[in-house]
Amino acid sequence: MDRDLVETVSLRWLRRLVIAAFLVVTVFPFYYMLVLSVRPIERLLLDPGSLVVGFGELTVATYAEVLKATDDGGQGFLTFIRNSGVVAVAATVLTLVVAIPGAYAVARLRFFGRRQVDFLFLAVYLFPSIVIAIPLFVVFSLAELRGSLFGLVLVYISQTLPVSVYMLRNYFETIPVSLEESAAIDGAGRLGIIRRVSLPLAMPSIMAVALYDFMIAWNEFLFALLFLVDKPDRWTVSLGLSLLADGVEVPKTVLMAGSVVLTLPIVILFFASERLLTEGLTSGAEKG
């Protein structure tokens, strides 16, 4: 065997080992969380390290308790899921409504300060969330938006809009200007060019940005706690999960069931849009 063949085979197996290691590190926590959520608490206390659940041990009572309304003795996660869904979808849609024309304008139009726009957008993330939390709390309290889901949506838009514009702008710049010029020659206006040419070509990137915005709004905890702490009927899933984690009398199996309920929608969305997400994240990486 020559040296090149040995190196090729070694690198091939090393790559497989690295991928397997990353897969185990990524999948194992979710698998163990899922195992704990379907085991009775009595069996868990007897054998907490078991990674395999017998068919006779499987139970969905933990999920029933998590999803059942608080008036019926449950944890009320159906209400939390509804609130999180409304907030995440609204924040995602409104962010895209503003980010798409904003990103297109930065990519195509010429105006004073255009080169500094990227820095201004990304400068938002130079400051930790806690720095702007208090000013937002004061402003929203004066505007009587504290405790409302609409106010929380506005906060999430302010958090996701800058990076959304930045990501979409990079993709719009990769679209050949000649395509838009051809549409303009055919009589299309600026809005027609955006709707018929730019948006269809940018759809993978738009889907990637939408998934990113949805994940941020679905998982966010700090601002939800700050604005909704005194309105339990408007809590999101992340707040409900923190309630389970702080509860001394809540079994850990119920806590794991709540964690699965929080994580599962994001996992389903990710795998359902994996191809579009991959195309969107890599789009705009190169020009030309």
Automatic annotation (TrEMBL):
ABC transmembrane type-1 domain span: 81-273
Keywords carried by this UniProt record: Cell membrane, Membrane, Transmembrane, Transmembrane helix, Transport
Membrane-spanning segments: 13-32, 84-107, 119-143, 149-168, 205-229, 253-272
Membrane topology listed for this record: Multi-pass membrane protein
Taxonomy, superkingdom: Bacteria
Localization: Cell membrane
Main location: membrane
UniProt xrefs under InterPro entries: BP-dep_ABC_trans_perm, MetI-like, MetI-like_sf
Keyword Phosphoprotein: no
Entry keyword annotation includes Endoplasmic reticulum: no
GO CC terms, sorted: plasma membrane
GO biological process, one term: transmembrane transport
Family assignment from sequence similarity: Belongs to the binding-protein-dependent transport system permease family.
Name the record gives this protein: Transporter
